[in-house]
Amino acid sequence: MIKQYIKQAFFQLRSQPLLSSISIIGTVLAICLIMTIVLMQQIQTEPFAPESNRNRMLHVKWMTCIQKGGTADNAISNGPMSITTARECFRALTTPEAVTIYSIVHKMKVSIPKGKGFAIDIKQTDEQFFRVFDFAFVNGKPFDKASSEAGLPVAVINESVARAVYATTAVVGRQINLNHAPYKICGVVRDVTTLASNAYAQVWVPYRSTDIDGMSWYNNIMGVMHVSILAHSNDDFPTIRAECERLRLKYNAGLRNDDIVYRNQPDTQEVNVERKRASSSPDMRMIYNKRFLVFAILLLIPAINLSSMTQSRLRKRVVEIGVRRSFGSTRKDVMWQVLAENLILTLIAGIIGLILCFVFAFVFSSSVFSSSSIIRLNSSPSVDVMMLMHFSTFGYALFFCLLMNLLSSGIPAWKASRISITDALSNN
Asked: Of 21, 60, 135, 382, whose Cβ has the fewest other Cβ atoms within 10 Å?
């Protein structure tokens, strides 16, 4: 039966080329546009190196400082935390596999001795950073705990910086200057796309090797640091959040005039992406409703147009339907035949649309996946095959193809099945 439906679908393509071409093109454009939007969302939440464990991660991007006994509505300060706060409230966690503290991305000038310098994106962090995020080292290794705690001037750099300063990636043991301060290169990693926003930088150094510890305010509560937590399993999230709350209360008890609140953090990867402001938590229900509305519009408008195309094709097959009915086919058989034939055409168009979506994502990645960060980064967003090729991507594409088929051919198929045999045979 399936083989017969496939033959019938291709026969309709050949017998009505204009209507079939318009239907396929309309479906291709609809699926391509929808899947581009899906990819823009997926690229922020689906795992890929060096953020391969996104499904096991929790993040604390910002926090709020309030007066002792006050509420979050009366904030004194909103923003990143100090190193002291991060260590007391998060590095002390015992439930997770690993916890890392790292700075916001900022600029420094990198150069070699007596060489010309250029600006790079740098992130100051600890040794746990390379355990939470799975970087691909092409030379050397990350700095260890002893180097991190001692604040030794060591650095991990990416391939681009290594080639720019030394024309090779075999640079472990050599020196670079960061804002004229000498650092020893201990490792070289593959370039990290800016789409991996938590892991991204071009150079990583121990935060104790600089004066960033002094970049704090409000009694050393607020600063420029973020925290990422790697759980053994996402089933541990409730336990980790409960432990975070206990440590927060303990930390607040030691403060004289202030308290800190997390505004529902730590966040999962999806919520962390949507947390745009330090002064409020994202309304995920409203965000989901907006997504649903966008997808509904993108599906309904082309589906209504395609439905009329399907109706036009069926008008030319009224006699065929009547003959089938007269030889014993039920209305259900007719309806399923129309849906199955149209589904084949929709799947063909869906495959083409998905391929076009991937091509568009590769060619225009810097525009499609542009960052809304207020910090201008030195790198443009880049994508590769492994970042896009997820089972969920193909699952979404198949789902939208099925939904498009149902919306565009459901009513015409139902109407075709309701035609009486006599009207069908008389082509009425």
From this structure: 21
